[in-house]
Design goal:
Number of helices: 4
Strand order of the largest sheet: 4-5-6-7
Number of strands: 7
Strand content: 15-25%
Length: 141
């Protein structure tokens, strides 16, 4: 038995080798001031029979590059609380949605030492979406 989720081709498998079909909900966690670490809403999401949650995250809270970065302790708590509710976590950065030119900034975020240190802690049940729809809406015809 493996310790983490794994892929084979296009399929995702749990550590026991069972194929996983993600059934989940997007949660705009980074902008939720009422329940910033998901103490309440992850339990509610789990009640829907979801097995996953896509946690929307950003480098800066208001998406302006010159502002302060979001708090990694909050991201850590979000991931931890989603796991407590038996949800597969997918973290996605939202900063480059529709803007392919910003994708390198997202890569820079994921490889900074503090983020690199956080990922292994949750590795067994964490999916990382490097950038949400980067460039997808950037073409005008």
């Amino acid at each position: 038995m493996r310790e983490t989720f794994f892929t084979d081709g296009r399929d995702l498998f749990d550590p026991t080798g069972q194929k996983v079909v993600l059934r989940g909900i997007n949660k705009m966690s980074v902008w939720d001031d009422k329940d910033p670490v998901g103490d309440a809403y992850f339990a509610e999401i789990r009640k829907t029979q979801a097995n996953s949650v896509r946690i929307v995250w950003t480098i800066t809270k208001d998406l302006k590059p010159e502002d302060a970065q979001t708090d990694l302790d909050t991201l850590d708590a979000l991931i931890t609380n989603a796991r407590k509710n038996q949800l597969i976590r997918m973290i996605e950065l939202h900063d480059a949605t529709g803007d392919l030119d910003r994708l390198p900034k997202l890569v820079d975020y994921w490889v900074q030492p503090k983020v690199v240190d956080l990922i292994p802690k949750h590795r067994a049940y964490l999916l990382v979406n490097i950038g949400n729809d980067a460039g997808r809406f950037g073409v005008v015809v």
